[in-house]
Amino acid sequence: MHAGQLVVTHSTVRALIDEQFPQWRNLPLRRISATGTVHAIFRLGDMLVARLRLEVEEPELVRSEVRAEAEAARELAGRTRFPTPEPVAIGQPGDQYPMPWLVQTWIEGTVAIDDDPGESEQFASDLAEFITGVRHIDTRGRRYGGHGRGGVLADHDEWIQECLIQSEDLLDTGTLSRIWNAMRELPRGDSPDVMNHGDLLPGNLLVHEGRLTGVIDVGGLTAADPALDLVSAWHLLEAGPRRVLRDHLGTCDDEWERGKAWAFQQAIGAVRYYVDSNPTFSYIGRRTLARIAADPT
To answer: Residue limits of the Aminoglycoside phosphotransferase domain (predicted)?
Structure first.
């Protein structure tokens, strides 16, 4: 999916575990097929999972980021009724893998990619409950740190214009350009930053019979625009359940439109970047943009 991406094999991960965590040497190990774009995922026994970065970065930078992910997971654990992963151990670089890596608890369930909850109003209600629970976590004075989504929409304009140019053979970029031209001017207002999961995509939400049963990939827990987690309204829900989500959250017009804009910002890059290397992820981006285009401002 990425230039210079590491090939993380079963034998490599097996060696890392056996050398660094001999207490798990006899646990079975198997790779999990997933649509995620950042990590290789290996289930270890029944209760654990190993996550290893795919793109090479400086080990000390990765170590800092892995520790931050572990701390975010600890902070979120138990704050809602929905299970989330908890950190267990941080692995070190080895002979065949050059960066630190994370072992955490396994959360059983089916991702929303494989069991689409888009028409479920019960799922929308559950999702609103999760978002509310995360928002109630004390920011402890933290604010948006200037990296990624969650700050000022207009700061992403140059990158989105590039995405639009490169997607002319994939999307109705004329319509999407007009939509973005309105979105980038949306005011932030004076709403304070709140805690957000930060990446409520279908691959990070677990479902069963149209209900939310767990949330994974929680390392992005962050203080940011309260609208950031509203991306889930367009990544996951059709029109009826989307209204249920909004009603449960009591979201005002400005915040709702910013949530739509953050979903646009995330989706427009996914379509063109992953069209060949991760078609499922690219399709999710297309579906999100179609929902946005069909939703009146």
So the answer is: 54-261
